[in-house]
Design goal:
mainly alpha, 9 helices
Amino acid sequence: MSDPATSTPPAKRPGLVRRTYDWTMVQAGTPRGLTTMNAVSFAESSFFPIPPDPLLIALCYARPERWWRYALHCTLWSVLGGMLGYGLGVFAEPFVRQMLGWLGIANVDEAFRTMKSFTDRWGFLALSVKSLTPIPFKVFTIGAGVFRFDFGLFVLGATLGRAVRFFLVAGLIRAFGERIRPFIEKQLTLVIVGFFVVVAAGFVALKLLR
């Protein structure tokens, strides 16, 4: 008979998000890896809690010569998913407010207000520089529909932001291999913010030179 004082408690079962993440990473090592990444890229932009970056990283490590193809797939499907999020914001606002609550957005109204303030200031670039905020991308895509943001500018901003993110991740892996992984995982947001700061500074410089 085991001693209650020394017995090991049963391991706590991982949460749904963690189990979903583990499942998606398993798929990266199968022939369905690209299809799974496309599906996650699409879904994450509107309703799925897991970002596509871990799958993109895994695929690029497995086939680094295909880095640009994987980044292109990730960008395309993420923007298409963003269009779905936009449509949900236009046609199903009450439902998506509940859905965002289910996905862990503690205060949906506050998240939408912050998103609106950000788009009022940055315009279509808000969807590109959203890395400056802790707000999930899906809040921006759905919120753009809720507030009837210009659809063409929405697509332009989303495409620019997603392309920079995914091509940067894939390109770094292609250039530096496994040794860049810790940097990507810890400093990716900083790199993206730095990129857009340089772009913004370039626009300001051009304006001053005219």
